[in-house]
Design a protein that fits this description.
It is a single chain. It is built from eight helices and ten strands. It has 215 residues and is of the alpha/beta class. 40% of the residues are buried.
């Protein structure tokens, strides 16, 4: 399922919402792939709410159990950072500079040439705007990246997940993996357990070539 060919080794990690566990999932998958012998690096597409260092990259490295890499030091893994903790289009406007998409693309290409696999973590959900007229899902489609999609068992996740997957299918984006995040573990597991059952069945039926994993 994991492809090593050059220019076919870049994957995008998104999810149903902000705070759904994308950073945790990205670091976890990177650790698993590295342990399997696939040299994997992570990248944060656009970081907001930070100044010089991406907090999400810091978390990735902690989860991966490694120190900052040379690419981290060179900011190749965090090419665009904005200070205000908001959607990228607003954070860019507040910082009075536009997102440099070519800089981001070139940074990703550099990583793909140095590693077997690159996991790009997005910001928020699929429909988060990068500019007034350009969404994260537009970027995924334009770059033709396979998608790793993070969901959870909290109330409302079924609706958010199905709506997101409708948008993915409509744009013919490759759904590589659906990642079911079990953290935090609720005291009452009734909703979470049934949500996991429902989504697993839905993926197996509607997206039979897509992996469904629980973390």
């Amino acid at each position: 399922m994991i492809k090593k060919e050059m220019n076919n080794n870049i994957y995008f990690v998104s999810g149903i919402d902000t705070g759904i566990g994308k950073s945790y999932a990205t670091g976890f998958i990177a650790k698993q792939w590295n342990a399997a012998g696939l040299r994997t690096i992570t990248q944060k597409l656009v970081q907001t709410g930070n100044t010089s260092i991406s907090e999400d990259i810091i978390l990735h490295r902690e989860l991966m159990g490694i120190a900052f890499t040379q690419e981290d030091m060179q900011k190749i893994t965090m090419p665009e950072i904005f200070s205000y903790p908001a959607s990228p289009h607003l954070a860019a406007r507040i910082d009075k500079r536009e997102i440099n998409f070519e800089k981001m693309r070139q940074a990703t290409i550099q990583l793909s040439q140095r590693y077997d696999a690159v996991l790009i973590e997005g910001a928020g959900g699929l429909m988060v705007p990068l500019t007034e007229n350009y969404l994260i899902i537009d970027y995924i489609k334009e770059m033709d990246y396979p998608l790793l999609f993070v969901t959870s068992g909290k109330l409302g996740s079924i609706n958010h997940t199905l709506l997101s997957l409708e948008a993915v299918a409509r744009r013919k984006i490759q759904l590589h993996t659906v990642i079911y995040n079990t953290f935090p573990v609720p005291e009452d597991n009734t909703i979470s357990a049934d949500t996991q059952r429902y989504l697993r069945t839905y993926i197996q039926t509607r997206f039979p070539e897509t992996a469904f994993i629980v973390i």
